[in-house]
Amino acid sequence: MLETLVKTCAGGMAALAMVTPIHSNAESNSVGLKIVNPVELYDPAPNGYSHAVVASNAKKIAYLAGQGGEDKTGALSPEFSDQVRQAYANLQIALDAVGAASGQVTKITTYVVDYDQSMLGIMTKYVKETFGDALPTQTLVPVPRLALDGMLFEVDAIAVME
Q1: Is the pLDDT of residue 13 over 80?
Q2: Which of 56, 82, 99 is the last residue of a domain?
Q3: Domain match, 129 and 77 both
Q4: What is the pTM of this model?
């Protein structure tokens, strides 16, 4: 459910934003997360992210290291799509290990080797599968290489928990 937020900013100007309250893991978590997408900016959801996420009532913040496309044995597929899928699976394992749900992630940063626009659809598919409607903020950083030979994609995250 979306609601329009009208807020008075410094200088008395009104700012409009689409706000989506997110209540992930409601039984065990009272952290309030709100996705904020100002109507003056384009809709980022088709590209798999939100412009801002506001967390309230947080008691713990988990910083998750970059997760690449390696499987449990350390093997990397040469395929970009396979690495992105595996990286988000690895991120979910790390989230589970710290007791965080995907809906508690407020920020991700993705690093892509030799990025071109054709890769965006693949990344968007897996970010939406991982986060559903609770799309975190996201920064995509094109890089010439990552830590391991053959590594094409990496994602790190910040999760806010009670």
Answers
A1: no
A2: 56
A3: yes
A4: 0.74
